[in-house]
Amino acid sequence: MARSVVLKQSPRCPRCQLPPRWCICAGIQPVDCPVKVDVLMHHMEHWRPSSTGHLIRRVIPTADVHLYRRERPLERAAIVAPGRELWILHPLGEPLPAAAPPAGLQVLLLDGTWRQAGDMLRAVEPWGRRVCLPLTGESRYWLRTQAGEGKFCTVEALIFLLAALGLSSAHDQLQLQFELHVYAGLCSRGAKAKAAEYLAASPVRTALPGLVDELARHRSRDAGAPPVSG
User: Fold this and answer.
1) To the nearest 5 percent, what fractions of the chain are helix, strand and coil?
2) Fewest Cβ atoms closer than 10 Å to its Cβ: which of 2, 78, 106, 130?
3) Which of 130, 204, 169 is CA-nearest to residue 33?
4) 39 within domain boundaries
5) Residues 128, 121: contact at Cβ < 8 Å?
6) How confident is residue 228, by pLDDT bands cut at 50, 70 and 90?
7) Is 186 among the domain residues?
8) How many separate domains does the chain show?
9) Which residues, 6+ apart, have CB-to-CB distance to 185 below 8 Å?
10) DSSP characters over 144-173
11) How many Cα atoms occupy the beta-carbon half-sphere of 104 within 13 Å?
């Protein structure tokens, strides 16, 4: 059974949340995003290194993460940005509005399991417009099994939104950071074959060859070591 960095309190990089030998901070690049991005993260998600809510905060300098606990009421003024229209992304929302200016938007992402997201939605739904994205294809979030076909993780929802808004540069930058996060996570778990398969279809190999080679050296060196999960 894989060791868990959460349960065992193994050392982790304070920034990328990976074990030190798998640290990817050298590859972290800021994403310039005109949309104000906020993540409402369930408190059970907060300590999971694989969380893509933390990834969003790491790579988008203007993004904020807010912890959700059912017993602690949320304050609208602490989250909703004045002068912007708030979109709350959820599969049961209305179709994506057309011709929305990105600089006038704030998006609130619900980060947790599907059941937890339902709880969070009920707490914030009166604040803004519930919006559904045109999600297609298969999830690239290989660190967790998605809840069903057409289901995607938190950062993938944001990636789809950036594409729908025509923000191609921000989309490509965030996609790269997301795939680096997943690839390094697979490596840290000792999933050598799965990591190689993931990398074969990823832009990470071309965009960050030096870092990928460094991770590959660690992967070869640790081939007989117990994997890490989280």
Assistant:
1) 40, 15, 40
2) 78
3) 169
4) yes
5) no
6) very low
7) no
8) 1
9) 18, 49, 50, 143
10) S--SSTT---HHHHHHHHHHHTT-HHHHHH
11) 4
The predicted pLDDT at position 230 comes to 55
Q: Give the residue numbers spanning the domain of 130.
A: 30-167
Query: Which two structure tokens, joined as six digits, stand for 51?
Result: 């969380």
Check whether 3 has a pLDDT greater than 50: no
Cα–Cα distance, 112 to 43 (Å, whole number): 9
What residues form DSSP beta bridges with 110? 40
**Can you list the alpha helix ranges (DSSP code H) found in the chain?**
52-59, 76-79, 114-124, 154-164, 168-188, 192-200, 204-207, 209-221
The residue with tokens 């960095």 is 5
Contact in structure between 208 and 166 (CB atoms under 8 Å): no
204 assigned to some structural domain: no
**Does residue 156 lie within any of the structural domains?**
yes
Q: What is the pLDDT of residue 15?
A: 93
**pLDDT at position 222, please?**
62
